[in-house]
Amino acid sequence: MNQFFINTFTHNSHNEPAISYNGSVKIRAFFQDPSLVEIVIAEGVTAIDESAFEGCCNLAKVVLPSTIRNIGCNAFKNCPALHTVKFGEGLEKISWSAFEGCKALTAVEFPAQLTELLGSAFQGCSALRTVVFPEAVTTIGSRAFAQCTALATLEFSSGCGIGHEAFKGCTALTKVNFAKHPQMSSTAFRDCPKLEQVMIGTTLLLGVGAAVEVSIPEGVTEIASGAFSHCDRLASVAFPTSLRTIGNNAFQGCRELANVTFSEGLQSIGINAFKGCSRLSTLHFPASLETIGSHAFEMCLGLTSLIIPQTVTELGFAAFENCLGLKEIHLPAKWKGYRTKYFKGVTARQTPKKPTEPRQAGVTYVTLY
Fold it and tell me: Which of 63, 233, 290, 293 is most deeply buried (CB count within 10 A of its CB)?
């Protein structure tokens, strides 16, 4: 018999009642049962307990009722033939490793009431290409979708919490979009080498992966704090005209970053935004720029010349600290006290008024205009 109906009167292969007194499919009720191919669970069943269907090697399809609220730990773990699961509308929680290792599962659409997807819930579902997350989801646990190597894009209609390595090793993943700001672990997308960007609306939340050259797309208005921090291979970045804000630490520690193209429209560069980008050699600030944060370009040793536009109304403390390669600085006259305040560690002197006056080696000359 291919289709197997499970209700309050069902017994398992050991002739034991499959449903407990509280209406749930019992722990290990059908553990490693090779006879199951398709199951339909009747209305009235409220939960699937731990390892209820774990290791059912031939189970291919599961239809769940609207009365089920919780799918327990390991409930369908290592069911290698399982390709289709129809969730009921009342489902609220999928527990640890519930579908881990279901390598034939290609798509899941969760019901609107689902709030929790716990750790390793779908880990190792290597054929899983499509996941639709409802707005009610508040928690995606550690490694919940780790090693789902066919996942290419993710769309979230909420700003849920995302745990440690939740999508680790999703090697086909390229883009992630959030409708609202998530509470996300810094390791959530570890070892996703093709991931280009994580967006929330028009804010670039995270730019990761192994990219050497990045062109931020039009429409992005903000690059979030730490978005590209310590991307060791990043060498070149071009910004769109829509960009207004580069957040704190956005490109801090990008040691190979040599070329940055700012576009008109940029208004603010945050604290430590390009700190330690030691290969950065040239900066052309747009006339729209208003704010350069403290330590924004500290230790950018490759910089040789600099022009601060008149539009800048806020120049942060030590913004260009220890930029020891600087030879020429053009600075609006309103920024007095440049020697100690903005260019700490740089031997700065005002440019001689007479062109014939000799210049000293190792000195940075400042032209006030």
Answer: 293
**Does position 12 have pLDDT exceeding 70, yes or no?**
yes
Query: What backbone phi and psi angles, to 5 degrees, belong to 324?
Result: -75, -10
**HEC-encoded secondary structure of 58-76:** CCCEEECCCCCCEECCCCC
Within 8 A by CB and 6+ apart from 274, the residues are 250, 251, 252, 254, 257, 260, 280, 296, 297, 300
Adjacent-strand bridge partners of 134: none
Q: Where are the domains of the chain?
A: 201-369
Strand pairing report for 70-71 and 93-94: parallel
- Residue 355 corresponds to which amino acid? P
Q: How far apart are CA 211 and CA 154, in angstroms?
A: 20
Q: Is 340 strand, coil or helix?
A: helix
CA distances 16 to 19, 56, 249, Å, are 9, 17, 61
The neighbour count for residue 11, using CB atoms within 10 Å, is: 11
Res. 91: pLDDT tops 90:
yes
51-88 tens-digit pLDDT: 999 999 999 999 999 999 999 999 999 999 999 999 99
Instruction: Give the number of other Cβ atoms within 10 Å of residue 75's Cβ.
Output: 27
CA nearest neighbour of 314 among 279, 267, 351: 267
Q: Return the pLDDT at 76.
A: 97
Mean pLDDT of all residues in 280-297: 94
Residue 212 pLDDT class (50, 70, 90 cuts): confident
DSSP codes joined into one string, 100-169: TT-TT--EEE--TT--EE-TTTTTT-TT--EEEB-TT--EE-TTTTTT-TT--EEEESS--EE-TTTTTT
Overall fold of domain 201-369? 3.80.10
DSSP H or E segment with residue 349: strand 348-350
CA distance 130 to 132: 7
Count of other CB atoms within 10 angstroms of residue 168: 20
Return the H-helix or E-strand segment holding 341: helix 338-341
